Amino acid sequence: MNRLLFNFAVAIALTSSACSVRLVSSRTPAGAAASIYNISVSSGNSQSVTVATATGSALVAVVRDSSGNPVSGVTVNWTVASGAGSLSSSSNITNASGLSSTTPTLGTVAGSNTFTATINGTSTSVLFSATGTAALPVSISVSAGNSQSAIAGAAAGSPFEAVVRDTYGNPVSGVTVNWAVTGGGGSLSSASNSTNASGISMSTLTLGTLVGSNTVSATINATATSTSFSATGTPGAPATISVSSGNAQTGTAGSALSSSFVAVVRDANTNLVPGVTINWAVTAGGGSPL
Predict the structure, then answer these.
(1) Could you list the residue range(s) of the whole structural domain that residue 257 is in?
(2) What's the CA angle centered on 142, arms 220 and 170, to 5 degrees?
């Protein structure tokens, strides 16, 4: 019978000479009944687990008929809708309670993963979701603020920013990062803090008072995993001028001295300041500067 249901109607026509019987048939596809079923979440929705791991509980969908009764023997197809994870079963049949289940392993990118359960041969489906959280921190690197220049003894214009990531490259929040000055003196606005939702830890350097290189390290707490930052201290505004050499010479009147007068300009931290215009003038005895 090709697994088809046949309905028969009998029509009887009577005439004066004979009677005839006419059979009328109609067909209903075997899968048509599935279109009146619905599918919904039974359990396991909205779990959160570490990326690249299986959820703690299976995703369970229930198939019911139009009266709300669970339906057994219905094929349910499971697919990954987003998140690039995988499923323990891509298709199975509902049990006596109308339940179909599968266990997902989430993708490696932190965030939303979604999965669809669909009644076979129909578009009737339900959506499940799970959230992947970052794995353990394994690396720390420069995010922003490296290689700045600022006046020696002053704060850098931007904080140093270090980012902590797991083995899949996801930023990891809530990780303690320790900051330390490793060269050039100076101080930090924070010696230790926790990474934010973007995996970022920050600290602002006040440079040492001497011109030149300043270095800072950022280290994941209780590990040797670290990264380095640098900043260059530049001279401040000129603050003093003093004799460097050539003072107190003796020479022939009307002749040039054998050595030049040399003055040196320094900032408030005694750093040499280049590029400063110096005006020379004779204040006694005549003569002229060259």
Answers:
(1) 238-290
(2) 70
Q: What is the pTM of this model?
A: 0.84
Query: Distance between CA 269 and CA 277 in Å, rounded?
Result: 19
Q: Is residue 83 part of a domain?
A: yes
Both 103 and 49 in a single domain? yes
Q: What pLDDT score does 146 carry?
A: 98
Do 182 and 225 fall into the same domain?
Answer: yes
Number of alpha helices (DSSP H) and beta strands (DSSP E) in the chain: 0, 24
Q: Which of 227, 170, 166, 177 is nearest to 201 (CA)?
A: 177
| Residue 9 covered by a domain | no
**Could you report the per-residue pLDDT of 254-270, keeping only the tens digit for each?**
999 999 999 999 999 99
Asked whether residue 253 is domain-assigned, the answer is: yes
Structure token digits, residue 109: 């990118």
Q: Which stretches of the chain score pLDDT less than 70?
A: 1-35
Residue 10 falls inside a structural domain: no
Q: Determine the residue type at 95.
A: N
Chain segment 205-233, per-residue pLDDT in tens: 999 999 999 999 999 999 999 999 999 99
